[in-house]
Amino acid sequence: MLYIPGNNPAMLLHGGVYGADSLLLDLEDAVALNQKDAARILVRNMLKTVDYYGAEVCVRVNHLDTPFGMDDLNEIVPLQPNAIRYPKTETIEELDRLVQVITEIEDRHGLPHDKMKIHIMIETALGVQNVFEIAKFCKRVDAITIGGQDLTADMNIKNTKDGAGIDLARKMIVMAAKANKIDAIDTVFVDVDNEEDLRIETQYIKELGFNGKAVINPRQIDIVHEVFTPTEEEIRKAYRIIKEFNRNKALGIGVFAVDGKMVDAPVLTRANYVLELAGVDSDAI
Amino acid sequence: MQNSLGREIPEFIEGYGKTEPFSGAWTKLKKGEMSEITIPPPNKAKLAHQTKLTPNLEEAIAKTNPHDGMTVSFHHHLRNGDGLLVKTLDILAKMGIKNITLASSSLADCHTPILKYIADGTICKVWTSGMRGEIGKAVSEGAMQLPVIFHSHGGRVRAIHTGEISIDLAIVATSAADEEGNGTGTFGKSAFGSMGYSIIDMRYAKQVIVVTDNLVEYPCYPLSVTQNFVDYVVVVDSIGDPTKIASGTTRITKSPIDLLIAKHAADVIEHSGYFVPGFSFQLGAGGASLAVAKFMRDKMKRQEIHGSFLLGGVTSYCIDMLNEGLFKSVFDVQSFDAMVSSSLYNNKNHIEISAALYANPYNCGCMTNKLDIVVLGALEVDVDFNVNVLTGSGGYIRGASGGHCDTASGAKLTVVVCPSIRGRISTINQRVQTVVTPGESVDVVVTERGICVNPAQPELEQNLLKAGLNVKKIEDLQQEVENIVGKSKPVEYTDKIVGVVEYRDGTIIDVVREIKH
Question: Are residues A132 and A45 in the same domain?
């Protein structure tokens, strides 16, 4: 997921060409206070005109407690991007208010309530404590993301390279997302020239269970993709597992082995996930 | 009359003479020889043990019979750090010499002071491969009475052979030289690398002054330029500032768009059918073209593909690939930074070549003819794949022909890389403002929004499609970009011709007209 400052016309124009799965047009922290109106108008117009070549498009609005949140939603919700990203969410009461505001705007414009999703950002200790309730609040919430910079600031700790301070938060957020069958997206890696540590961190958060990672520079996209993309060997193995499963199922055999190892339900689930990432239709195998 | 690209070319251009319209990238070469007569090099004699050392540049120039209407040549190996061109013209102007033809292999921003000599009639004509900044602006606005003649690097050699550029005085900067004029650019405090362009100038110039800031014991070697062509030797405090050779063109870009284009270009090369062991390669400096090297290097290592030779303008990145064994040799007509100079001095597989061996179309074969793959930049490309590397979107001259059309003509695969949008202006247009390289010699255009293959290369297109690359028709890309940025208002020109663009074979591929201002 590529962050694009909402007041940068060139980046907004080119956002779709880099191959990111998802674009985050940012009206919040990337935009200076005196640029908020300009960014909102710019993002609104870009959403109307620019082809993002099939990437998911999300807009991070300002919180409703700020003077900009309501204006952001009034301009952006009618354009129905794939999702609204809501920052610094701490309680379900805040989320409830957001959903109500969005619903009212959609009603005013005769829009459905189930098309545009909500991505929640957890950026405070209180938000981390409440993340499970937030994740299960409503079906419109289909992703939870962690904001590492704000979270460490809220905790009054340094954001260290090993991420020790936010490790628990990362794990709680992943668990809440998984428990509610929604996506978990990791925070940005700010040292854009440090490709090696970005790779290490991405590998780690993948192993924790995150489904993706936010990036602040297009140069980071390939590294995140490389880490999350299954290897050829993994894809081949998953393919064999599903093929064997389908063959044995037709023969009425419940338990079987691939490469000498028993295949059970968790192995099948993982194999299906690998094939899904690889863009292979497992039903056609 | 119109040339074969439909460009309107007058039959006669004041200050240039009768024109021959461009008729195809290889049409004239098929004859197997140049139609024009080659002028003989000057006859000279020198007695033994006569000194060539002259106390200063003023005295040396005074000895060379400076006269009104003379042609003075310079190399541009010091690029934006050159300290001799302006100094020489200061001296000639002080002597009251008028109507000089300036024949520098290229002009950089540091040469801006010559504008005063254009204004006062000291300089009346210019031959060059390119110009930028204030000089380009002034010329575009009609500062010169006679048009500037833009040549390619190979075309310059041809023009010297035919006598179209008839050099009366060649000023040759060297970073090390001896009292007889043997010299090099490979070592010394002002080392700048290859002297590929000077080698030709010196052979045909009536008078040659070698200038150095590092006089060494006789004989100076390596022998980039040799004493048998040199009349006088002058020692100065400084020939220029070699730290300004690079001008930011030799570092790998961090621009995400340029990197993306470079990545696409490397993918194109990988799947083109030409990425095979022993391939030869050239790439431009700066922006996306240099960044292609980064991705090619990774691919070559991963697939264990080793190339044959690297050619052309050489950057430190080329040297890295040579030192890593990814290529066997580097043939260097111009070097882009100090590290390259040191490699040229120390590495026997890094070889200095003349502009004639590099790109002259009229000999028994230049090295661009042996190129498999070249990656080139562009200011603008049109739907016929014609490339403009000379005039910007506002119509002003701000680029250089360089070796663009030479290498495109020779390479089996010519890849042009450019962003589809610069600022708010489309670079993929119905018709480029100025053609420098004809579309028939361009195989593929790579942008961040898609890859366009010349319809004359259907097999290449199939290869790229099979590899899953984002191949589009150039007309579709042009429309897509126009939908984003709109149609630019055409630049308004007067009828006055301020630039004549020679194709490498000496035919006129286009002209540049004065901007209404």
Answer: yes
- Same domain for A259 and A134: no
Cβ neighbours of B421 in A, within 8 Å: 13-14
DSSP secondary structure of B369-382: GG-SEEEE--SEEE
Banded pLDDT at B249 (limits 50, 70, 90): low
User: ipTM of the assembly?
Assistant: 0.81
Q: How many domains does chain A have?
A: 2
Which one of A14, A49, A50 has the shortest CB-CB distance to B448?
Answer: A14
**Contact yes or no for A18 and B256 at CB 8 A:** yes
Q: How far is CA A218 from the centre of its chain?
A: 16
pTM value > 0.80: yes
Are residues A94 and A14 both part of a single domain?
yes
Residues A112 and A159 in one domain: yes
Domain that holds residue A241: 232-284
Residues B407, B205: Cα–Cα separation, whole Å: 26
CATH number of domain containing A60 = 3.20.20.60
Determine whether the interchain pair B260/A50 forms a contact, defined as Cβ–Cβ distance below 8 Å.
Answer: no
- The residue among A2, A8, A12, A17 with the most chain B CBs within 10 A of its CB, best to mutate, is A17
In sign, the C-alpha dihedral spanning B136, B79, B352, B87 is positive
| pLDDT confidence of residue A44 | 96
How many CA atoms lie within 13 Å of B380's alpha carbon, on the beta-carbon side? Answer: 24
**What is the number of CB-based contacts under 8 A between chain A and chain B?**
23
- Same structural domain, A116 and A237: no
